[in-house]
Each structure stands twice: as structure tokens, then as C-alpha cells.
Write the C-alpha cells for this entry.
Amino acid sequence: MMRRSAFVASLAAFGLTARSVAAAQDEFDPATSASTQSLRVLLGAGDATPNPAGGFTFGGRAYRGTFSRTADGAVVNTLSLEEYVYSVVPREMPPSWPAAALQAQAICARTYVLQRSNPRRAYDVVPSEIDQVYDGISSESPAGRAAVDATTGQVVRFADGFAQIMYSSCCGGRTEAASDAWGGSPLPYLEGVACTHCTASPQYRWQRTIGRAAVAGAFAQELSALGSLQGVRVATPDDSGRAKTLELITDRGSAFVAGNAFRMRLGTRVIPSLLITDTGAASPAAAAISIEGGGLGHGVGLCQWGARGYAQSGGTARDILSLYFPGTSVA
């Protein structure tokens, strides 16, 4: 799951213009008028065909619920919230994982939607990592449905509203504060916590060797007035140990880049997270730069591998959520 700040950019990606959003603002809103809690998922451009037994087919996949079109012709799937979560849970967490972890994921997925739903938009969420991965009926599983049914209607709450839910694959031993990751005002339940449960993740600790020329090419603009790249080091870590700023060391001075920019330009799979523990010694003769770190993803909120580990040790879904979102409640 990615941060929702990509919402505006996602309009163009799904063929939706500001005109179609404006046209939907004063129309009947099925998500708030349905007899059960419902939501709208923007599937995008394409052909949708009703199925005789119910639901419809879009892009070769079967979906629950009904569909409509925006003013620009994009297909929007309206379905019950619980049926939506049926599809999300197995796509965001392996269905073979413990039931308590899957239940925590179901509660997070449900809360994520409700915290963001807005009847003045043409849809509530998109079906990708921009929000949550949703593939219709094809991604459902018996274990995923059981986790959803066991937590029906349960959400994470803070004060008088829904908590802002974030989650990622593996935190590497400590989750990240939302304000450090993306700026903005600190949230008391997203300030980062120690995690001892995610050590089984393949990405708990990682090492990457990247060609020095590739790093220099990714930051050619920053290095244009400097000399040859010799190495990289973390210049400013935040409270979780993640890199806020990295220094690109040359033989004629240094350039400094934000941690998020460093990770995005080199690739989020090349640099799995910003929990960088070692970058090796700077050397003008080395053909490659070695970077060591831990975790996979932004690290904010629920650590999914941590949820797995906590569940394996006997933790319940509520225990898991209390750890990663301290001060919240499940209601």
C-alpha cells in the first residue's frame, strides 16, 4: 500500500478527468445510500459485462456488486465494504499466514477505506497499491474470507474518528513515524514503535551492490558541478534510524539528497527501505557501492511480517493493532 498523496496523479492514470469528478459531485451516491455499507472502486477504462448469476466481468476478471460509468466512461465497481475486503486481504497478506494476522489486516483494510471515503468524489479508492490491491473474486481465499467474517464491521478508531491506517511489508525492527516519512503534524499513534516480530522476513536485513556509475547517473544533476562520485553515506538519520538525507561524496565536495528521492531514483526494489545501516567506505577506485539495510517499504504503521510473527507467538488481532497503533481502539 502506498500513501494516498498520489490521488491527484491517479486520475490521469485511470483516464479520469476533473470534469468527470465534478459531474459526480451532485449525483446519487450509492456508497452512502445503499442498505449496507458500500464503496466505489475505480477500475478504469474498459468493457464491463453483467453476469447472469450476479456481479459482472471486467478485464477478464469477475467482480461482486454492480458497475456504473463516470462521465468519461471509466468503470466504477460499487459493492459492499465486506466483499471488497474479501478481495483485498489475500492480495495484501499471504492467506497461509496465521488467522490473527489476517484479521488484523482485514481491520486495517476496512478502516483504510472508511477513513478516506468521500461522497463528493466519483469513487472512493483505486484497485492498486496507490490505495489497496483489489482484483475482485479471483483473489479471494477461504482464509481471507474467514478473517473478514470474524472481524465484520470492526475498525481502528482514535478519539472520535477513524485512525489513519498505513502498513508495509517489514519494518526491519522499528516502525517509522508518519511525520518523518511524509511530513505534516505528528500523529500520536503513528510515531514509530520497536518491533521484535519481523525477523523471519527475507528483507529483515538486506545488502545491495550498485554500480558507482549507475548511482552517479541517477544523480547527474546534483553531481554536475562536482567531481567523480566516490561513495554514499547517511548524513541525517531520523529517530527510527531511517535516512532523511544522504550525502553523495565526490573528490570535489558533496551533494545532499533527501532519503525518499534517493530511494525512488535508484528504485524501491533496489533500495527496499530507508533503514540503511551501512554504505561502505568511500573509494575512488571501487566500481560499485555496497549498501546494507533492513525492512521493505515505508515502515509506517502495521508491519505485516511483524503481525505474522506476533500472531505465531499467540498475539490476537487486537494485540497486533495495539502494538502498531498505540492509543487506538478496535470498535
Residues 2-35 have pLDDT under 50 and may be disordered.
